[in-house]
Amino acid sequence: MKFKLLFISMLGTLFLGSNAQIVPMGTVKEGLSMSSRILGRAVNYAVYLPADYENSSRRYPVVYLLHGYSDDESGWIQFGEVNMAADRAIASREIPSMIIVMPDAKTTWYMNNANGSEKYEDMFIQEFIPYIDQTYHTRDKKEFRGIAGLSMGGFGSLLYSLKHPELFAACSAFSAAVWTDEEMKNFTENTFNGTLKTVFGITPEKTLMTQHYRDNSILNLVTQLPKDQIEKVRFYVDCGDDDFLYQGNSALHVAMRNRNIKHEYRVRNGSHSWIYWRTGITDGLKFIGESFQR
What value does the mean pLDDT take over residues 99-114? Predict the structure, then answer.
């Protein structure tokens, strides 16, 4: 009799263990676009919708997830496998059900460029966020909106959070393209195939240290903006110990510490690679998701 009970107990454990591996899959939609009046062209994007989205009348928090230089809206899905990470984290209740939106920014650095011919930031704030709120079942308040990104997208996520703190509850920046002034002085006008010259402009001395750069420098914003404005957003900064962007990210951490600005700073083993970002995205989403819960 004891043997039978033990056998039945073992079967139950195996059955439950097997069920525990079943993860409801969300839906990924690619090839989507929004027509932008500000840019005068369509903006492509991809979206992740949680598994219960189609069969629910509820509204969901949203995270804008920004790609890096030379990628597009498919990067976080194709290489970052963010949909699978979100599926697992939602199923295990590490993060709340959320919509993840991934726009294509080309090589704009998510900014309005120096001569005003490409106003990506204006488009994102004035058109894209309202469009997403109108198109999907989002919770359209600040406390249910987060932003994250890697490299160029890490820069963009920090830039928007610092300049538009009324829109975002939390920011997770991975390997963010943050540079010190000393690093910027050493860049040439051809850095990143000349895109930084287009974005920031160039001085008569052929440097990138323009006023437009200073107005959008992450380190300048962190040191000059009112502290209470910065702290309206929760910040998570993660950069590998072998990443070529370690200096700017370290300087960002120091600048925040010097002003006693609350933030989370992570240095893990790794470089500027998809392996690093794939293994870190769940923690970044978890950090943002904590802002969506009470």
Answer: 98
Sign of CA dihedral 114, 112, 82, 169: positive
Indicate the pLDDT class of residue 15, thresholds 50, 70 and 90: very low
- Return all residues near 240 (Cβ < 8 A) that are at least 6 apart: 175, 246, 267, 268, 269, 270, 271, 272, 273, 276
Amino acid identity of 266?
A: R
**Residues 6+ positions from 127 with CB-CB distance below 8 Å:** 34, 36, 37, 38
The 3-state DSSP class for residue 223 equals: helix
User: Distance between CA atoms of 45 and 138, rounded to whole angstroms?
Assistant: 16
- Predicted confidence at residue 247, as pLDDT, reads 98
| Per-residue pLDDT tens over the stretch 17-66 | 445 568 999 999 999 999 999 999 999 999 999 999 999 999 999 999 99
Are 138 and 144 spatial neighbours (Cβ–Cβ below 8 Å)? yes
Mean pLDDT of the chain: 93
Identify the CATH homologous superfamily for domain 24-185+217-292: Alpha/Beta hydrolase fold, catalytic domain (3.40.50.1820)
What was the pLDDT predicted at 21? 61
Reduced to 3 states, what is the DSSP secondary structure of residue 249?
Answer: helix
Q: From residue 47, give the alpha-carbon distance in Å to each of 67, 213, 243.
A: 13, 31, 28
Note whether 224 and 215 are within 8 A (CB): no
The helix/strand/coil state of 148 is strand
Give me 198's structure tokens. 């287009």
